[in-house]
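Problem 12. The chain below contains 206 residues. Write out its predicted structure in token notation.
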Amino acid sequence: MRKVQFFATYYQQKERVNTLINSLLMQTADNWELVICSNADDSINEVEITDPRITVKLTEENTGTWGALNRRDYIQNELEDGVLLINTSVEDYYIPKLVEFINEHQDRDFIYWDFSHHHFGYNTNHAISQPRINKMDWGNFAVTSEIAKTITMPDFQVPDPEDNTKMVVANYWKDFKGDGYFVEHVFGQHPDIKSIRIPKILFVKN
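Solution.
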């Protein structure tokens, strides 16, 4: 059985990091592990972590908004084979049966579930997940490491917001819709992917 590996970004979230940690410690299935990647913020070292399934990485440099490039670098350089990867944040919450539900579909390459937004003005809206932009979020899907490693999201050009006669380089990973772009690249680059939606709210995006 594959491990379910959570990769969570962290920056100045010492007071909220236990939201994710505690929700994983309450999982009814134990084949999970958590990697917390702190974006050059050593306050993570002040968080008491005793479970051996939880490890901490501290980057030497701040890679920018949401630590998004840390997701990319981990997938491309460190993600091990044979796991189901969930990209998330230390503020997010999962119901105790999430991993148990995922285990029922270990034959699939991509597993996703419904969720509730609780930030950025979304209030507590229930999002019915669909594998496209604005219908997915980092945290509400698991993908096999073998597929995650193949996803290429090259830089692209957009009009300069300060001078629309010029173009500037943008990055899919650092975009607010980076989660949706990633999912669309997964399905675009792997049209025969075996996927399944679990029609339950298993995740709260904080």
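Discussion. The mean pLDDT is 87. Students who got a different answer should revisit the alignment rule from Section 12.3.
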